[in-house]
Amino acid sequence: MMLQSSPSDPLLKVENLVVEYVVGGKTVHAVSDVSLDIARGETLGLVGESGCGKSTLGRAVLQLRQAQSGKVMFDGNELTSMRGEALRKMRQRVQLIFQDPIASLNPRRRIGDIVAEPLVIAGVKDPERRRKMVSDVLAAVGLDPALVMGRLPHEFSGGQCQRISIARALVLNPDFIICDEPVSALDVSIRAQILNLLEEMKSRYGLTLLFIAHDLAVVKAVSDRVAVMYLGRICEVGPSEQLFAKPAHPYTALLIEAIPVPDPDMRPAESVAVGEPPSPIAPPSGCRFRTRCPRADAKCAAEVPELRSVAAGQYAACHYPLA
Amino acid sequence: MTGNVLLSVEDVVVDLPTPRGNLRAVDRVNLEVQAGQTLGVVGESGCGKTMLSRAILQLLPKKAKLGGRVMFDGQDLVSLDRESLRKLRGRSLAVVFQDPMTSLNPVLTIGTQLIETLQEHLELDLAAARKRSVELLAAVGIPAPEQRLTQYPHQLSGGMRQRVAIAIALSCEPKLLIADEPTTALDVTIQAQILDLLAREQQRRHMAMILITHDLGVVAGRTDEVAVMYAGRVVERAPTPALFKKMRMPYTEALLAAIPKLDTAPHTVLPAISGRPPDPTRPIKGCSFSPRCRYAVARCHGEKPELTEAETPAHQYACFHPIETPAAVPA
Ligand SMILES: Nc1ncnc2c1ncn2[C@@H]1O[C@H](COP(=O)(O)OP(=O)(O)OP(=O)(O)O)[C@@H](O)[C@H]1O
Ligand SMILES: Nc1ncnc2c1ncn2[C@@H]1O[C@H](COP(=O)(O)OP(=O)(O)OP(=O)(O)O)[C@@H](O)[C@H]1O
Ligand code: SF4
Ligand code: SF4
Ligand SMILES: [Mg+2]
Ligand SMILES: [Mg+2]
To answer: What is the rounded CA–CA span in Å between residue A114 and residue A174?
Structure first.
């Protein structure tokens, strides 16, 4: 499956990536034949329900999880075949921010050391220089370096811990950050602060982002393009505004409909009784969404739908896309 | 106050002793729920929603101190003996928690749990209880309910478990169902199905419901009245349409504005609320929202605003400088 949407200058290119887990002798098809491009300076949002393979995809891009097959190209280099020093150097340009801000910070280390850790690994030997870099990046994420450097993670709230994680991801001045549900664990009032901060850091550090979330509105707020994932496959990808205004894949439409809207005049439409996602251990044949799709027919069970162009820059993997 | 008030929470205070000092989790809350109506309780993590529901249910932690009255169906629950409370909780007062595993027993099958509840409270014989169980599971949208009776909770998905918990809660036809973040742990498509299920059963049974959530979107289309909580207190209360169209409390406005909406253009700077809620063991002298409120003036820092009436007695807010104009909801 090839995507013709290739931006002219992709920083990241994922081609036909397959990632599986074996659990108790059974294969979990976590990521199946996924292809994606992310242009330099772009934010690509990745949405989908729990267990659809978003984190697995992110980890496979970072080479933290070995792929069964497929390629990951970063800035023209194939990460999948890189080893040792070369991979380590390349990885410094790619960072990860996790969902659980408190659990992702070592509880016994001081904030100054936590944020300095990537510098130590990268071989920045001069402690004074490290201190300066840590202090600068903490200030950039809105924390007072003098106040926070000597303290431990448990002394901070979830939102502050997420700022610290962001500082740690930024300290090596990377090109690309994978944000894996960076605001899902935060309260509404804190969420907006962190989303604004990510946007600000993106322009300040010239970043490219893969932004993973299950909340469509959050994804839309920060993304240029959005990819929708279902049970290990990408079912639709397109420019944010366009995708939300005119979803072509029935699953995208279902996701949009299910969002609770804070407006009492918009009485929620009675949800379609679409059941639950099937297990990734035995995904349905053909289109994986067919067991919940109101449009499914025999062809959907027999043939895997390929991503096809439905509008400028918008691609859907469906035999019967919505008009 | 009309005659069909089913629940009235009067000046309820919950104090929790902690190593850091006394923590006032719920601070003089007053609420009513009419029979057959849905009240939404909205607020951020730690604002006291769960402690309020546990105060109503008389299920507070042992060391907690409860003040005020909870009148339910003509009885003061605070002074009721344990046996009467236990009967009441199984029958006319039911609850669904965020994590269905807190109400399900992991070592008993779904069938045993449902059948026992029905036998105990409705005194049905085994055959009748079994039949009723299958009907209930079908009503909450569980496919192949007969087979499910023999399954254990861990064999079901999160969404299915929540459906079972709802089936058990509904089994004795309660007059009031308290649903404490029933969908927070679920995916958005499953959330919509569970909320619809609750709304449908609530109407069909003419049951009253308290729907607790941190998501203003969840209460907007699904409640008759909303109470917004902040730092243990109700800071605004109104019929749902009035709350969204004419909110008076700056916190409600800020909370709504901070949510990314589907029609917000990408890369728009979100109107975030600065800072974070106060430490509940270090009470703030004035309005608890004052450190974060953009309208705060000197008086807000020194004096606590009490709930006052807006145009109608049903709409109340606790603020010295309420928003006068209809809220500019960023559409
Ligand atoms: N280490 C693992 N071993 C076995 N199976 C795994 C492992 N990690 C993930 N899985 C399975 O792979 C599938 C994809 O999981 P993944 O964590 O990538 O999903 P996700 O989209 O990130 O979900 P969430 O929104 O819950 O974070 C799921 O079925 C999951 O149970
Ligand atoms: N068992 C307990 N002992 C001491 N303090 C507690 C206990 N349970 C909760 N608290 C505190 O009481 C306050 C209110 O908590 P509560 O659980 O009611 O909040 P909530 O609004 O339900 O939050 P959430 O949205 O996270 O569920 C919080 O400050 C919390 O830390
Ligand atoms: S391919 Fe068929 S089953 Fe899949 S989304 Fe399209 S119509 Fe539905
Ligand atoms: S009382 Fe003052 S600080 Fe509190 S919400 Fe009103 S204006 Fe803001
Ligand atoms: Mg994940
Ligand atoms: Mg709670």
So the answer is: 17
